[in-house]
Specification:
There is one protein chain. By secondary structure, this protein is α/β, with parallel strands linked by helices. It has two domains: about 30 residues, no CATH class; about 230 residues, 2-enoyl-CoA Hydratase, Chain A, domain 1 (Alpha-Beta Complex). The protein is about 35% helix and about 15% strand. It contains eleven helices and nine strands. The strands form two sheets. Strands 3-4-5-6-7-8-9 form a seven-stranded mixed beta sheet, with helices on both faces. A two-stranded antiparallel sheet has the order 1-2. Helix 5 links the parallel strand 5 and strand 6. Helix 5 packs parallel to helix 6. Bound molecules: zinc ion.
């Protein structure tokens, strides 16, 4: 310990200012944080009223978002849409008849990870109000009676277990039997690994049913939405007579990182997007969600040789 050295001329406190400071201090600098606080308050709008678009950053009024079928009015970004809302947007009002509504998965393998499969199923059932990741049934679209299956990504990532596979297969078989067109709207992360090989078997089962449906000469339109990947893309989603997709949807089998690591090759720009695959012929058309009902009806008219045209002929 040393005594503090005596103050040198340089370290002495400055002389008092000759002119006294103004009576009214300029406090404009102090207002700045308040402006920022206001801004952040504007950003912290109560949840459930506004949604920020991840593509363009604009705040969109939720009511407007619902009216636009969950597409951004500024940049047309497509937000996820739940299965019930999608059916509502496509089927003639009041025409949808659901089938196999209460079919539910069984935890055959007694799978446990961080959580048991049974617990996960219960959680997703209560959160989504669904029994599994697909809703199937019949509805009217334009002049056509259609077998319609719609997947919901909110239920365990739209994964295909034995219930999804069975419901899809029953829907396809019913369409084949009734000789009516089939439309399946996919949104899935792939096969449901909690069901092990039982989920993988659904790839073969659904694909075989599609092959039989093809023989009945009734069309099958596969609609891909963001994201459609892995086991679902490797089976019925890629087997449509017509394969259409929503804009900018991610479509593929394995993820880009896995492919890059396996092939040790640089992946091209836009790899695994709907636009990339449309350029290369895997996807026949990219259809914005708000035009989907109209365009599907047009395709059905064409593929089913339009009953209206037949009458006039
Ligand atoms: Zn936007």
């Amino acid at each position: 310990m040393t005594d503090p050295s005596p103050p040198t001329p340089d370290s002495r406190p400055p002389e008092p200012a000759l002119t006294p400071p103004p009576a009214q201090l300029d406090t404009s600098f102090a207002r700045k944080p308040r402006v920022a606080a206001n801004k952040s308050r504007r950003r912290d709008i109560p949840q459930g009223l506004w949604t920020k678009c991840p593509e363009c950053g604009e705040m969109v009024f939720d009511k407007e978002l619902e009216e636009q079928l969950k597409t951004c009015p500024h940049c047309q970004f497509h937000f996820p849409l739940c299965a019930r809302k999608r059916i509502e947007s496509l089927a003639k009002p009041g025409s949808f008849e659901e089938i196999d509504a209460h079919m539910t998965s069984v935890d055959t393998l007694e799978f446990t990870g961080t959580d048991s499969y049974a617990a996960k199923l219960e959680k997703h059932k209560s959160r989504t109000g669904l029994c599994d990741a697909v809703i199937t049934g019949f509805c009217r679209m334009g002049a056509h009676r259609v077998a319609l299956g719609v997947m919901d990504f909110n239920f365990l990532g739209g994964s295909m277990g034995s219930v999804v596979g069975e419901k899809i297969t029953r829907l396809i078989e019913a369409a084949t039997l009734q000789r009516i067109p089939l439309i399946i709207i996919s949104s899935s992360g792939g096969a449901r690994m909690y069901e092990g090989m039982f989920s993988l078997m659904q790839l073969a089962k659904t694909s075989a049913a599609i092959a039989y449906h093809g023989r009945s000469k009734s069309p099958y339109i596969s609609v891909l939405t963001h994201p459609t990947t892995a086991g679902v893309m490797a089976s019925y989603a890629s087997l449509g007579d017509l394969i259409i997709s929503e804009p900018k949807a991610m479509i593929g089998f394995a993820g880009p990182r896995v492919i890059k690591d396996t092939t040790q090759a640089e992946l091209p720009k836009g790899f695994q997007t709907a636009e990339f695959l449309a350029d290369r012929g895997l996807i026949d058309a990219i259809v914005p969600r708000r035009q989907m009902r109209e365009r599907l009806t047009e395709y059905l008219d064409y593929l089913c040789a339009a009953p209206a045209a037949k009458k006039t002929a």
